[in-house]
Specification:
This protein is an alpha/beta fold. The chain folds into two domains: 174 residues, 3-Layer(aba) Sandwich (Peroxisomal Thiolase, Chain A, domain 1), CATH 3.40.47.10; 152 residues, Peroxisomal Thiolase, Chain A, domain 1. Helices cover 33% and strands 23% of the residues. A five-stranded mixed beta sheet has the order 1-7-6-4-5, with helices on both faces. It has a four-stranded mixed beta sheet with strand order 8-13-12-11, sandwiched between helices. Strand 12 and strand 13 form a beta hairpin. The longest helix is centred in the last third of the chain and has 22 residues. The protein is globular.
Length: 332
């Protein structure tokens, strides 16, 4: 059986940096308040007319392809994870396919929000292990700044989220000493409405009304305390699941890259697992929560910073809307 190995990683970030201080001009907040609760100091906002989710994904993919030493024509499957696609339909996968100049291969779009990367990695791994595909391009991107309201009403979510994209190339290999060791994905729909964007949806005759605009019903909703409560349970649980499945322990782990949801969640999980600072990589202070893009973006920066070396054992883990959560264990 073939093993799936990540051979190229790349990321793209919009140029506009929005600091906490800038947000104070739109809402009653302070940089100290934001940092204390989230660990975020700045984030990126897209440039209209230049950045789209698919274009950002393409720019990240071009870097990943170059780093993998292959061309777009070598790719035989595209997977695109995002909660903020360019269009309601079609998905970003086919748009990126067109931008890369690839013909006729399949493109799959994944809507698993913060767990999108893990779910996408799981799909790519399964396809490669089955022998159906050999070279998979997984891209993740988000534009969220334009769905947040920069106001007192939208403050609790507006300070958290940012824009960006990242991509990885996953290839089949006969080398069983390296690659994706396993992936583990879960969901629990009981709490679906605790972190969601309800409107516009298909369950109402009128998808957008003046009343929705007035009441703020077109804004995302998050029960922050409940999300935190579940995240700090599911993160350690699914990390242990990945290690146990492979007969490994936390002592074997070289680096944990958690979904960059909130630095306080990451710190709680780190302390709960007894990991050192050298064993965990976070970059949320620079980019905020980029949802599906957060893990591959952090992975890309960790590689650039020399935090991932040949032979290292890396765990990636996510928790988010759905609720969905998952992990993957990778031997680099």
């Amino acid at each position: 059986m073939k093993r799936a190995r990540i051979t190229g990683v790349g990321h793209y970030l919009p140029e506009q940096i929005v600091t906490n201080e800038e947000l104070t001009t739109y809402m009653d907040t302070s940089s100290e308040w934001i940092v204390e609760r989230t660990g975020i100091k700045e984030r990126r906002f897209f440039k209209e007319g230049d950045d789209t989710v698919s274009k950002m994904g393409t720019r990240a993919a071009e870097i990943a392809l170059k780093n993998a030493g292959i061309t777009a024509q070598d790719i035989d499957l595209i997977i695109f994870a995002t909660l903020s696609p360019d269009y309601n339909f079609p998905g970003c996968g086919v748009l990126m396919q067109r931008q890369l100049g690839i013909k006729n291969i399949p493109a799959i779009d994944i809507r698993q929000q913060c767990s999108g990367f893990i779910y996408g990695l799981s799909v790519a791994d399964a396809y490669i292990r089955s022998g159906m595909y050999k070279n998979v391009l997984l891209a993740c991107g988000e534009i969220q700044s334009n769905v947040m309201e920069l106001s007192d009403r939208g403050r609790n979510m507006a300070v958290i989220f940012g824009d960006g994209a990242a991509a990885i190339v996953i290839q089949a290999t006969d080398d069983t000493s390296k690659g994706i060791l396993s992936t583990h994905i879960h969901s629990d729909g009981e709490f679906a409405e605790e972190l969601m964007l309800q409107h516009p949806g298909s369950n109402r005759k009128e998808r957008i009304t003046t009343e929705m605009l007035t009441n703020g019903d077109l804004l995302p909703h998050m029960n922050g305390k409940l999300v935190f409560k579940h995240a700090i349970v599911r993160f350690p649980e699914v990390i242990h699941e990945a290690l146990n499945h492979n007969g490994l322990t936390l002592a074997d782990l070289d680096l944990l890259i958690p979904h960059q949801a909130n630095l306080r969640i990451a710190e709680y999980v780190q302390n709960d697992l007894g990991l050192t600072n050298d064993q965990v990589f976070n970059n949320i202070h620079k980019y905020g929560n980029t949802t599906a893009a957060s893990i591959p973006l952090a992975f890309s920066e960790a590689l650039q910073a020399g935090r991932i070396k040949d032979g290292d054992l890396v765990c990636v883990a996510a928790f988010g809307s759905g609720f969905t959560w998952g992990s993957a264990l990778i031997r680099w």
